[in-house]
Amino acid sequence: MVKINILSKHLRLLKENKTAELKFNFPARTVIRYDDSEFFTNSLKIQYSDGIYSIFCENRSLNFKKCVIYSHDNNALCRIKIDDAYRLYPLPLEITRQMGALKIFVHETPAQYAVDSASAELGYTPPEKTEALFALALAINGRCRIDSLKKKHPDSDFCDLTCCQTYKGRSGLNPVSGPYINTSAIAYGLFFHTSSGGRLFSESVFNSGKRKIKPPADILYAENLMLSKNLHRTWSASIRADELSSIICSGKNMQVHGIDYNPANEIIYLRTNIGITDIAPEEFRLKVNRKKGWNFIKSNNYSVSFNNSEFNFTGSGLGHCTGISLDGALQLADRGYSRYEILEHYYPDLKYLQNGKADRSYQYVTYNIHNGNIKSASTGASLLERRIPCGSLFKLFTVIYLASERPDLFFNYTYNCSAENPHPLPDHCWDRKGHGPTDIRSAIYNSCNIYFASLYNEINKDQFTKWFNRFVKSRGISMRLPETKNNKEWSELLAGLNFSTDISVRDIMALTMYIHNPDNAISSDASAVISGALKKTFTEGTAKPAKNRTDTLIEPAAISPEIWGKTGTVIAGTNSHHSYGLFTGGSNDTGIIVILRKGKGTDAAHLALSLMNKKIPEKL
Q1: pTM for this entry
Q2: For residues 406 and 463, is the Cβ–Cβ distance under 8 A?
């Protein structure tokens, strides 16, 4: 459990006569206990006058150093109206009064506190962006297990203000579930802020001295998009040199004459009348903002100039710019990235634990293979819009083209996939030994790069392009072919080796549904060949369990005769590149798509089978 100090701001407003009272309402049979007294109560009211806090239960004045308000119902909540909105806090409440100070505490599980705090930090989050909320919740859950982040307050783990993380009681969301962050592998903290303004900082921004680690880039390489530029795109502030000196050098006989600051170095050098001194950027920002207002210097991402006795700051972003940028997290969530990918965008070396065991991040969706209705999914609606390099899944387009437009090649063409292959084909297949003589059947279940690449000399590029454009339009698939300048690039495209060709999860669904239910452009004989080959993926092809692997998720006996599909392995990521395993396929009337981060297509296929067999939970 974590202990949270709540409503400290509102107790201060009460003391400053800016609010009249704080009133809690309790469910039936709530008990208040202090000293030797214990009785039922329905409400509790806190007022401030003549320099003291007064506490009343109904009309009864209470005098205590500590009281506990609890219910025998473990799920009981109390209610308090704050700023025209009701907040719900879990019981028990603990109230202490000492030397004129009043404090109120609640206890929560880290998982519940994390999601409630994340909700308070982000406010309303549209369904398509909830992965950002859960990414933040996982980070806050991790913070609950890092002792150095829980030492700011002597009598609680956290307060409900931004110096820890905002908390406004229950959000109505279920506790965040694992896999959780493995905090034992974290060298620093888990920080977050509103918006980086396009530049992230390392933890060195909090401490004067040289930067120890290089922060990640807040960029989405696939779109060449600088993230976190939506909010607080630009800001400016000015302060006179003498005023800045009085703030920064308070109590010292020093005058600031100049500021040298390169955000990339994460340290500020002040030129003063007695020499040069350094200061951490966040310490500088907070010192100034305590006097000038918390949003005066909005972030640490700025440049500074001096003119007419004034220092002029021009920057972007909001907050210390270290760790997770909530602005960027929302952008990534909107594009279908998972909570774990969002976390690793900002903390690339994170590891996860599920039930005490190492775990990898993945996304999946199951659906009705006939009509596309979603059955279950790991994440929200934005998952369907998630785009990822097509990789070997592109081979399915080549297969459909051959079956519908070139049945002569489909039924009769073979190629010898050897250990070494002539230009413009790839030097070798993914299986460096080669697959030997290969026809369309074995090319499908072995995902043979050489077979599909060899078609460059058999398929007319212009005819294929016209067919492709017609096909994707007819199936509602949002894709375009990249330009290929020579035979090598053309052969790579046919083999699914052109990673600039991306596809959305929704489009993979449409493609897979067509494979399962083709129109009359594909003969029944060709359809039977495709179906049979995709079923062999698990028994003879890329998803066949390897005898010498101990980390496989499945045993041969677990393979249903009805399971079929296509694997793929691509290189993708947000601001760094990783291997992703892809699988699309199905069993009976259920289709499934799996995207496995830091994995291979074989692993994604095994994970898909485990999901279909319900051997692992459907909900993350």
Answers
A1: 0.88
A2: no
